[in-house]
């Protein structure tokens, strides 16, 4: 019994240590992203910043839809089956490369339909021409998440460091433009791909083999994951995608700044899910439908509770600091961004927790419940955008997004807790007792396991 407790303690400690390093990496990435966004906003102006935001939004949308959930599938499979991880990376990488070629070609063709001036069309096409490299490298990156979380963090921070350094150099030389910013982004992604390949080869020696059976498994898990990933993307990006064709670029620029501020806590909140996903996958019982272990419950409670607490605290501080921060760092031209951020704030406080819960449920193999919750939020987003944007403009987009994030949070929380046999009413007691002991650990309360999964 004592030996079992020691194993559980080491597992919990390992989880929290990995979350700490991942959160620290995410803070660095978030800081670099915020600094890069400020430089772009200052040197490109509202119109240029809006054009860049549109290109990035379409890149993200194309990547999320085009990769068909295979990145999560590679991570999940590599975590569950370490002996077959190299074959999963080789098979998944080949599938992703093919998808990247298709997405890149499609983006090049449709560029004139999305942006209109010649320079913006060229920048859009350059961004999509790099998609085969981005897609192919993602297999190595997500395999590292499953096998070597430290190497994964190194790879994650490498790209924004390289990108920020290049953008700063161009800004200092007064050469920064939308097109050059896109070139900096592409170059940093190529560098990340090279480093990911080298580190993945160290973590998983050998080339691996293309296996049809693994391909079928990856496609099955990835397909279910894609359904939820697309809905999450729509929940977080549909407002910008719609505003890009309905309002002036300067208004999109104001909104993009507000969204950037609202997203600041998300990387740290998501770190709890990033680490939990492969750990929960590795600990899943071999028999489908097996009950969750006590260690799984601790991980789920830690991931959900900590991500929510950080998101609420961070958004509260940002809400108070927003007027001064925007005025000092961006100038009076971006004053409308402050009110837009305040409208986004309630939903932004829980958005990072939503992402963490998505990963928690995927680690438990419950991808379809994630899709149901996220798509409910998407339907609500579409309905509210259609109602509010034509009447109150960009403010309506902020209200619609905030309400949708909150509704999705409630739905995901219910499913996440019930998936590991926890009732909502028992959570405060568990947290109080855990806090009283000075660490987050499972404590004895009446069992909820009889209630089953949602």
TrEMBL record:
Q: Which UniProt keywords apply?
A: Cell membrane, Membrane, Transmembrane, Transmembrane helix
Instruction: Mention any one GO cellular component term assigned to this protein in its UniProt record.
Output: plasma membrane
Classification via InterPro entries: Poly_Biosynth_Transport, Polysacc_synth
Signal peptide bounds: none
Regions crossing the membrane: 12-40, 52-75, 96-115, 121-142, 154-173, 179-200, 221-246, 252-277, 298-321, 333-354, 375-397, 403-424
Principal place of residence: membrane
Source organism per entry reads Pseudofrankia inefficax (strain DSM 45817 / CECT 9037 / DDB 130130 / EuI1c)
Superkingdom to which the source organism belongs: Bacteria
- Localisation: Cell membrane
Output this protein's name: Polysaccharide biosynthesis protein
């Amino acid at each position: 019994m004592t030996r079992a407790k020691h194993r559980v303690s080491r597992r919990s400690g390992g989880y929290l240590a990995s979350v700490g390093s991942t959160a620290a990496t995410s803070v660095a990435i978030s800081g670099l992203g915020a600094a890069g966004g400020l430089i772009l906003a200052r040197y490109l102006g509202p119109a240029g910043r809006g054009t860049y935001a549109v290109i990035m939004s379409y890149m993200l949308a194309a990547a999320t839809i085009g990769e068909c959930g295979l990145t999560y599938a590679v991570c999940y499979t590599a975590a569950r089956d370490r002996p077959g991880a190299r074959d999963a990376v080789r098979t998944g990488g080949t599938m992703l490369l093919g998808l990247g070629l298709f997405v890149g070609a499609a983006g090049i063709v449709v560029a004139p339909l999305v942006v209109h001036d010649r320079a913006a069309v060229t920048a859009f096409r350059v961004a999509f021409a790099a998609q085969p490299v981005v897609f192919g490298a993602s297999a190595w990156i997500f395999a590292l998440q499953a096998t070597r979380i430290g190497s994964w963090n190194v790879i994650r921070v490498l790209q924004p460091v390289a990108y920020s350094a290049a953008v700063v150099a161009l800004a200092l030389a007064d050469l920064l433009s939308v097109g050059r910013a896109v070139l900096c982004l592409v170059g940093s992604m190529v560098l990340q791909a090279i480093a990911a390949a080298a580190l993945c080869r160290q973590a998983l020696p050998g080339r691996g083999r293309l296996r049809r059976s693994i391909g079928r498994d990856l496609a099955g898990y990835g397909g279910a994951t894609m359904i939820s990933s697309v809905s999450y993307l729509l929940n977080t990006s549909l407002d910008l995608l719609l505003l890009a064709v309905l309002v002036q670029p300067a208004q999109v620029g104001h909104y993009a700044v507000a969204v950037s501020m609202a997203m600041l806590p998300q990387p740290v909140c998501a770190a709890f899910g990033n680490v939990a996903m492969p750990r929960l996958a590795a600990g899943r019982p071999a028999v489908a439908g097996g009950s969750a272990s006590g260690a799984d419950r601790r991980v789920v409670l830690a991931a959900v509770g900590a991500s929510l607490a950080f998101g609420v605290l961070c958004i509260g501080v940002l809400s108070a600091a927003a007027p001064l921060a925007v005025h000092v760092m961006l100038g009076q031209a971006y004053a409308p961004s402050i009110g837009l951020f305040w409208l986004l704030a309630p939903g932004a406080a829980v958005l990072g927790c939503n992402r963490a819960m998505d990963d928690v449920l995927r680690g438990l193999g419950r991808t379809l419940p994630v899709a149901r919750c996220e798509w409910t939020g998407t339907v609500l987003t579409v309905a509210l955008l259609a109602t509010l944007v034509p009447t109150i403009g960009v403010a309506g987009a902020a209200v619609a997004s905030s309400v949708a994030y909150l509704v999705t949070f409630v739905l995901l929380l219910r499913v996440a807790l019930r998936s590991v046999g926890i009732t909502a009413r028992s959570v405060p007691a568990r947290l109080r007792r855990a806090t009283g002991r000075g660490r987050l650990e499972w404590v004895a309360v009446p069992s909820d396991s009889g209630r089953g999964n949602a």
